[in-house]
Specification:
- By secondary structure, the protein is mainly alpha-helical.
- 56% of the residues lie in helices and 8% in strands.
- The protein is built from four helices and two strands; from the N terminus they run βααβαα.
- The protein has a two-stranded antiparallel ribbon.
- α1 (8-15) crosses α2.
- The longest helix is centred in the middle third of the chain and has 18 residues, at 19-36.
- The relative contact order is 0.16.
Length: 79
């Protein structure tokens, strides 16, 4: 089963930073997600877990899939 949330360690590994910076980024992303659903009924709001971030939101925001493809294809070596 594929993970739906990234942990701070996942984020740190993906962007090449320490866990402290990853926690800051997770907090910022979660605040953005909350803001997107402000004023909506509770049953329509996503679940926010402190210290974790929704994988789909993070991937889209950080364009993780593009970086993963480049890394796998070693395209970053040719720039």
């Amino acid at each position: 089963m594929e993970k739906k949330y990234y942990t701070a360690q996942d984020v740190a590994d993906l962007i090449g930073t320490g866990k402290g910076k990853a926690y800051e980024l997770i907090k910022k992303c979660n605040e953005e997600i909350k803001a997107l659903y402000e004023g909506k009924p509770e049953n329509e709001k996503p679940i926010i877990i402190n210290g974790k971030v929704n994988k789909a939101y993070f991937d889209k925001k950080m364009e993780v899939s593009i970086w993963k493809k480049c890394y796998k294809a070693k395209l970053w070596l040719h720039s």
